[in-house]
Specification:
The structure is a homodimer. Chain A is an alpha+beta fold. Chain A contains 8 helices and 10 strands. Chain A starts with about 25 loop residues before the first helix and ends with a strand. The structure holds a DNA duplex.
DNA sequence: TTAGTTTAGATGTCTAGACAAATTTTTGCG
DNA sequence: CGCAAAAATTTGTCTAGACATCTAAACTAA
């Protein structure tokens, strides 16, 4: 494989493709490009050559290059944008799930800028799942707060957080005025809260979630359902989140 | 299936594709086929019509059908086997992670047959991670037990489980004779153990893991790292597992 | 300068055909 | 009948070309 030079191990940058070794051309192309990305030839966020240029470089048809790029996109190594080009995927974020689960704190620790956008805040009747988690009865009034959270300007999380409307009267309006949920809870008398349990599953996103997270529907999202309790162990809020698996890895620790 | 009733709104089984609504043909085909699978027209495990037949049915080129099938395969809806055909993916397994994490029990509850194969059992020096988990010092002797676990005859899990060689002298041989890890631990005097912590992340598998799990390298695996402790809270074993995301959903609950 | 339009460049979709590789079925020989 | 070889079937890969759609840059007119 390493062609000729005895002293220096050359980078396999323009490694010649073999048409007779039984390995599909597109796989070989994918390997070469992945190696180049790993070696930093194309740094994260960088624009790759166009499909046409790559096809010329490897001396194959554009469709063959496209097959290789599709494989890399599926892996999450690339971001393909019609009319713009192909970009190397930036690195993912580690989201630590601990007893103290605070979105902003969590990401600040990783030197990420954070932002949030409330989609809506409204009262509704508790579903069976929400009621069970918050210790209510099905149909009891709860406040649902839907939100999209951003890190470095990218949407990484869509969530709904539920609060008992009886226990926190007026939280509906408080939430609308606040920047974060932690802040709203403090105004409602919850000095501190901790994460009691978290469920993690993987599934495909709904169309709405995919839109919010700006990711294709055929790429899975990580789904977490978490219950927060106050210092006395009483349920404070129940939250269901979908995370952009392209950008986030959930790390669970208790 | 019910072909002709005039009153009943017919299932969109052979819905005509529109070439002018801006939706790619392959996406429309994918939608139709997914709907048919959801409606049970093609039950799990069933062989779909051939690419050629599907192309004929939708009156498109075979490559257009292939694009639709690729999307469905990526979603995990299909299993494509060269020379054999296209098969509907069987349903996934829910693996519950609770305080009592017992592989066999867990799957029996879901009426799954279980099986296991030990890859190797050997002594090695504890890595930093293993040492930290088990309360040892780096380099201390540990027994590593590597295993592939099956449900319904399919590999769904590759794991390494580590035990302190000092605390469990002779477990190396016991493991080789036993069917399960639970059984081996009982023989070593551990009456019961519980899961203390589990970390869950998602990543791409190594080549070896992909081979064991019989899945492509470009499909992610769920990775769990769990620490089990005895009734006194002392660490018993530390395990690292990779799960076939095609077949398993990890459900975490504590 | 600014706003709108045009144009060029880039990716997306679809078709058509040829051959390769893997699997299953059929055929033919003993 | 049994088994091995041949043929048919089915998916995999690659090429070639046409046109659509989206984006960004260049241009034009107010």
């Amino acid at each position: 494989m390493p062609p000729s030079d005895p002293s220096v191990p050359p980078l396999p940058l323009s490694a010649d493709l073999s048409r007779e070794n039984g390995v599909a051309l597109w796989k070989q192309i994918q390997q070469v490009l992945e190696a180049e990305i790993a070696q930093g030839v194309w740094p994260p966020g960088e624009k790759l050559p166009t499909e046409f240029q790559l096809a010329e470089r490897f001396d194959v048809n554009r469709h063959t290059v496209r097959r290789a790029l599709a494989g890399m996109e599926e892996k999450g190594l690339l971001r393909v944008e019609q009319g713009r080009g192909i970009f190397v995927h930036e690195h993912v974020i580690d989201y630590m799930v601990t007893k103290r689960t605070r979105f902003t704190e969590n990401l600040r620790r990783q030197n990420r800028s954070t932002d949030g956008k409330f989609l809506f805040v409204e009262m509704e009747g508790a579903s069976e799942k929400v009621a069970k988690a918050l210790g209510l009865r099905e149909g009891d009034p709860v406040i649902c707060c839907a939100k999209v959270s951003y890190a470095d300007g990218r949407p990484i999380n869509v969530s709904e957080t539920y609060f008992s409307a009886v226990r926190f009267p007026g939280i509906e309006d408080v939430l609308r005025e606040c920047e974060s949920i932690t802040e709203a809870l403090q105004r409602c008398g919850v000095r501190d809260y901790t994460r009691k349990s978290t469920r993690v599953i993987a599934r495909l996103p709904s169309q709405a979630d995919a839109d919010h997270l700006r990711q294709p529907r055929n790429r899975p999202v990580l789904v977490t359902e978490g219950l927060d309790v106050d210092e006395n162990g009483r349920p404070v809020s129940f939250g269901a989140s979908r995370w952009a698996s392209d950008w986030v890895q959930i790390v669970f620790e208790n």
